[in-house]
Design a protein that fits this description.
Helix content: over 70%
Number of strands: 0
Mean pLDDT: 74
Distance between the termini: 44 Å
Strand content: under 5%
Largest sheet: none
Order of helices and strands: HHHHHH
Structural class: mainly alpha
Length: 141
């Protein structure tokens, strides 16, 4: 019986460590993929990661690296930059909204949204609508 308890506690500790370590490691690796590693199979993933980057200097560096690696020509680089400029802000908002709606704890969602309202990033009516959508998704009739 003691062996089972020790194994269960060890397993739970390992799982908790992974739940903490994985997001931290993922957050540290926020740079887009190396331009030399871009293949036709992973272009969509690279584009999604590029759209999530908010620092324009990082985007310029990534695009310049892709040009230097021969993955993009200058015309394509201009089109990628134009696409990022036109769509990154809206894409990020949709990505964050999806993550908020999939969250399990309404209090955490509310806290996040309250901070966004105080910072002037969204309006109170938008917060109310997001909370309403969250409640519909998580409390089916």
């Amino acid at each position: 019986m003691k062996k089972i308890i020790i194994m269960a506690v060890t397993l739970l500790t390992l799982i908790a460590s992974l739940l903490i370590a994985v997001p931290v490691l993922a957050a540290d690796n926020s740079a887009p993929a190396n331009p030399a590693q871009i293949t036709p199979a992973n272009k969509a993933k690279v584009l999604v990661r590029l759209l999530l980057v908010q620092d324009e200097a990082k985007v310029d560096t990534f695009i310049a690296g892709a040009v230097a690696a021969g993955k993009l020509n200058t015309d394509q680089a201009g089109k990628v930059k134009d696409f990022w400029t036109a769509h990154h802000e809206q894409f990020t908002k949709n990505f964050i909204l999806k993550r908020l709606l999939s969250a399990k704890d309404e209090a955490k969602v509310k806290t996040f949204l309250d901070k966004a309202v105080k910072a002037g990033k969204i309006q109170q009516a938008q917060e109310n609508k997001i909370i309403q959508m969250w409640e519909i998704l998580h409390n089916p009739a």
